[in-house]
Amino acid sequence: MKTVQHQVQNPSVQNQHKGASTLWVLLALALGTFALGTTEFASMTLVPYIASDLGVEVAHVSYAISAYALGVVVGSPIIMVLAVRVRRRTLLIALAALMALANGLSALAPSLNWLIFFRFLSGLPHGAYFGVAMLLAASLVPPEMKARAVSRVIIGLTLATIIGVPFATWMGQTVGWRSGIGIVAILATITAVMVYFLAPDQAVAADASPRKELQTLKNREVWLTLGIAAIGFGGIFCVYTYLAETLIQVTQVEPFKIPIMMAVFGIGATLGTLVCGWAADKSALAAAFWSLVLSTVVLAIYPSLTGYYWALMPVVFFVGCGLGLATIVQARLMDVAPDGQAMTGALVQCAFNLANAIGPWVGSLVILSGQGIAATGYAASLLSLGGLVMWWLTHRESRRAVSLNTANCAD
Predict the structure, then answer these.
(1) Cβ-contact 340, 213 below 8 angstroms
(2) CB 318 within 8 A of CB 294
(3) According to the model, what pLDDT value does residue 404 have?
(4) DSSP-derived 3-state class of residue 203
(5) Can you tell me where the transmembrane regions are (predicted)?
(6) Alpha-carbon distance 109 to 91, whole Å?
(7) For the residues 236-251, what does the mean pLDDT come to?
(8) Cα-Cα-Cα-Cα dihedral of 9, 13, 15, 20, to 10°?
(9) Residue 20 burial (CB < 10 Å; 0-12/13-18/19+)?
(10) Residue 303 above 90 pLDDT?
């Protein structure tokens, strides 16, 4: 723990007089996650409009969503390891610039194949930005408040589901889906400017190296914790990807009610993130358990209520609460891998976006098999249940590690 305190506290002390207040720095960082949340989740709600404009099947548009997620999986570890000695502020500005360029190109895509390619490019800076932003946020506060600081950065993503995604959905309905994605390029540009002026220019740790970060890959607890996210989180994406189409096909609502439901999801995500940030500072493993239990139950209930708009609303709210798992997993990884936080910051985004690739894919299998779009909820619940299995394995490994440390201390 002393090592963690040294890494977290010193940068804050060294840069307190150089940078803006912590609140403003967190705001700048959160704007970037707001942009990322908007582009990631809005691409799901815009699926019907993309399919109609490009003349392809709804299920095929999910390939573009999976391509974005795979871009995150590829880009996150490579960027974080190769840029481990790059100052965090400089790296964040570069990532925001890449975000702006790739989303601008996505908005101009002339065909589905080009859209898939540009969405892959858009995903490359996603995980690295999240990882660096969360590490910077954690460095600005005492160790016992790091999960709450991380939650303030992630809250940009959840606010995107309340404001950014409904707005992008409305833009997709009225102006066209391209405007819904193109606006992210503007947000990313503003992020780069804010980070330049507000974020502290922290020095890189003298012992930082790719080799040291890669040592994290030997830690079993890291991989098991990532498994919770990669499998358990897939259920939320399995349902959310097809939520707009479900509201059109099954619930048969007026178009203006779709953004309202998306905002309900976002409110749940925001409150869930705040609560999970507080709970993770108490016990990350316990918080993860209850988050997964909640998701498993509400996702199983989801299909039976898709025909009733008002009854579906509280279910979608609690599905959104499941996004708080992101804060929990990040806090857990900071605890079990204090010497490889850059790598774990990247890997956690890989895990969540692997879930983002798995969820829509599993949902497309359900739809193409003829089970009906509402049945994605049952598949989603099974994915969340798989996350609970990974939680049990993680809990068992954690107890084993504690026993070994106790035995070593006794010797």
Answers:
(1) yes
(2) yes
(3) 64
(4) coil
(5) 21-51, 63-84, 91-110, 116-141, 153-171, 177-199, 220-244, 256-277, 284-302, 308-329, 350-369, 375-393
(6) 27
(7) 88
(8) 90
(9) middle
(10) yes
